[in-house]
Design brief:
Structural class: alpha/beta
Helix content: 25-40%
Bound molecules: 5'-O-[(S)-butoxy(hydroxy)phosphoryl]adenosine
Strand content: 15-25%
Number of domains: 2
Number of strands: 32
CATH class of the largest domain: Alpha Beta
Shape: globular
CATH superfamily of the largest domain: ANL, N-terminal domain
């Protein structure tokens, strides 16, 4: 395939602006700038057209949008089923025998698995019947704690088929993390696996699942046999997936769900130690999952879409399950590590399966960039047509490298801003319209409105920064509640600027007249560690559970590859002496309680933490220290001498 060189760029001052080529425009579902204005004229009508055109409803809605701040509803009284729309619809078309899921296992010699829409349909029907036979009913919560294997999509779609609410927990989270989420969700059944491969080793997932199921309402655990490692099954509670499936009937009628019935909850970190269950409902979520997949990635029938995100995150839910499948598109999922057994594994996968759309996180791009171009050069990557990024701000160098070396300057880079709470992408450029500007995500998706406000709630001017908010009509896929905690829903999202303005907790800059937006990162105590969302309070909770810790404070420090990393300041209990051994035990403690993603980059043992006279820890000072910024005024501190001491200890006189 010839290299396209038609990108118009203004590379003066090291500023780049790229526009779609004629070829890209011709291919794209959307290539007219006017879509933004048309949608803005009547966003509710715009979404009504999308919901009607894209999805099959069992019965129509009576009201498109209802708003009782801070709550809103979409497609009120409409009846719909997610699994029916992702599967049954395609059974009547030529897509029936098209691959729905291509699964690449981590061990190189193990064959891939391909499930056609027909296969997936059969498996989902059977597993839906399995769940029913175990007493799972509409509205019941089902925990899913699985690695990236097709059973994860099967389990999710089976839940949605019978109206059960799935709550997926990232398989690299610890048993303890699983437990607190299952307790909150009051799950009846948990679906897990014996183990999975990670860098050539088998991780015993079932052992973690056992910890997670303790002291919960889980009655049954269904275990997928994936890695063949030895596991203990508890008589009467634990059941093998394959045994249940071998007896399950093939037909399960999809449950007609109300548009505003819950489809799933997904736990995410907030500013407190307790993760919150983000609630997503059915009709609105399906609408945005479908249309953002189609328009952002210019998804067509011949595409192979590889979203590298784990299913345990919202990105996996929307772009490695619901979105592409609703479009009848083929998704590729990969079990293991991108660099196993070598640093070109991911490019080998792209080449082998002819991946056309590749969607990953800036962290991964920065890591791959560091490995050098020789790993890419071994492979033919010309199947790639479009590149995406998500999860954290991307720096210009990484953006340009991705564009040049991975995309060969043929592929637009779509930088998508969104959150677990928003269900689907919201701010990004569209591939047939552009522009594509490194570090600038783009414009609000048609039919949605964002603004950037200052401290007092006035919109900032072009070129200025402030806080990103969303305005009514809220995108159909937006959060409906925090599971069993409406107070947290109200205080987190609807208190800063009142109950009519959704507060994102992100900083942003108004880039230009066109409405482009540059995201600058979280403004609360939520870290993005290698794209993973984590609260500093969670890490603190994990550390204070250790016997030798008296007190601690965790802050995020900037990191070249991971974006941010947690740094812990720890005061030991009287009589405990600091040692390398103790420090490594503390690190292990965090991994045990939360999982490896939360591993502190550094633990600084100190005699005291900087505090105000009223005893409050001054995080502002710790943040400045780890960023190498000037600490500023310390006169209000109870113990200013601590700051001097910490300055030396941190070693961050950067
Ligand atoms: C936070 C949400 C949404 C899927 C993955 C993350 C940050 C997300 C971008 C982007 C700059 C971004 C924000 C946001 N974020 N995408 N393209 N540019 N920042 O979901 O775990 O809920 O995290 O990720 O800070 O608030 P999440």
């Amino acid at each position: 395939m010839a290299k396209l060189t038609k990108w118009v760029k203004e590379d003066t001052d090291n500023k780049f602006v790229f526009w779609p080529t004629e070829e890209m425009k011709k291919r794209a579902w959307i290539s007219e700038e006017s879509i933004y204005k048309e949608a803005a004229k009547d966003p509710v009508a715009f979404w009504a057209v999308r919901a009607k055109e894209g999805l099959e409803w069992f019965s129509p809605w009576t009201e498109t949008y209802q708003w009782n701040p801070p709550y809103y509803k979409w497609f009120v009284n409409g009846k719909i089923n997610a699994s029916y729309n992702a599967l049954d619809r395609h059974m009547k078309t030529g897509r029936r025998n098209k691959p729905a899921i291509i699964w690449e296992p981590e061990p190189v010699n193990e064959p891939k698995r391909v499930l056609t829409f027909n296969d997936l349909y059969c498996e989902v029907n059977k597993f839906a019947n399995v769940l029913k036979s175990l007493g799972v009913k509409k509205g019941d919560r089902v925990g899913i704690y699985l690695p990236m294997i097709p059973e994860v999509q099967i389990a999710m779609l089976a839940c949605s088929r019978i109206g059960a609410v799935h709550s997926v927990v990232f398989s690299a989270f610890s048993g303890e993390s699983l437990k607190s989420r299952m307790q909150d969700a009051q799950a009846k059944v948990l679906v897990t696996a014996d183990g999975y491969y990670r860098r050539g080793k088998i991780i015993n997932l079932k052992a973690n699942a056992d910890i997670g199921a303790n002291d919960t309402s889980i009655e049954k655990i269904i275990v997928v046999k994936r890695a063949g490692n030895e596991v203990k099954l508890m008589e009467g509670r634990d059941l093998w997936w394959h045994k249940l499936m071998s007896k399950a009937p093939l037909d399960c009628k999809p449950e007609p769900m109300d548009s505003e019935d819950m489809l799933f909850t997904l736990y995410t970190s907030g500013t407190t130690g307790k993760p919150k269950g983000i609630v997503h409902h059915t009709g609105g979520y399906l609408t945005v999952a479908l249309w953002t997949s189609k328009w952002d990635f210019d998804l067509h029938d011949e595409d192979v879409f590889w979203c590298t995100a784990d299913i345990g995150w919202i990105t996996g839910h929307t772009y490695a399950c619901y979105g592409p499948l609703l479009n009848g598109a083929t998704i590729l999922i990969y079990e293991g590590s991108l660099d196993y057994p070598q640093r070109d594994r991911l490019w080998e996968i792209v080449e082998k399966h002819g991946v056309t759309i590749f969607y990953t996180a800036p962290t991964a791009i920065r890591m791959i960039l560091g490995w050098g171009e020789e790993w890419l050069e071994k492979h033919d990557l010309t199947s790639l047509r479009l590149l995406g990024t998500v999860g954290e701000p991307i720096n210009q160098d990484a953006w340009l490298w991705y564009f040049r070396h991975v995309g060969g300057e043929r592929c637009p880079v779509i930088d998508t801003w969104w959150q677990t709470e928003t269900g689907a992408t919201l701010i990004n450029s569209l591939p047939g319209i552009g522009p594509f500007i490194p570090t600038v995500a783009g414009r609000s998706f048609p039919g949605t409105t964002h603004d950037i406000l200052d401290e007092v709630g006035s919109p900032v001017k072009i070129g200025e920064g402030g806080y990103l908010v969303q305005k009514s009509p809220f995108a159909p896929g937006m959060i409906r509640d925090v599971y069993k905690d409406p107070e947290r829903y109200k205080s987190q999202y609807w208190s800063i600027y009142g109950d009519k303005t959704y507060y994102t907790s992100d900083g942003a800059i108004k880039w230009d007249e066109m409405g482009n937006i540059r995201l600058t990162g979280r403004v609360d105590d939520v870290m993005k560690v290698a794209g993973h969302r984590l609260s500093t309070a969670e890490v603190e909770n994990a550390l204070t559970q250790h016997d030798s810790v008296a007190e601690c404070a965790v802050v995020a420090a900037p990191h070249d590859i991971k974006g941010e990393v947690p740094i812990a300041f720890v005061v030991l209990k009287q009589g405990t002496t600091s040692s390398a051994d103790l420090v490594s035990k503390l690190v292990k403690q965090v991994v045990k309680v939360i999982g490896p993603t939360a591993k502190p980059e550094e633990i600084v043992i100190t005699d005291s933490l900087p505090k105000t006279r009223s005893g409050k820890i001054m995080r502002r000072i710790l943040k400045a220290l780890v960023k190498g910024e000037t600490v500023g005024d310390t006169t209000t501190l109870m113990n200013p001498e601590t700051v001097e001491d910490l300055k030396e200890k941190v070693g961050y006189t950067r």
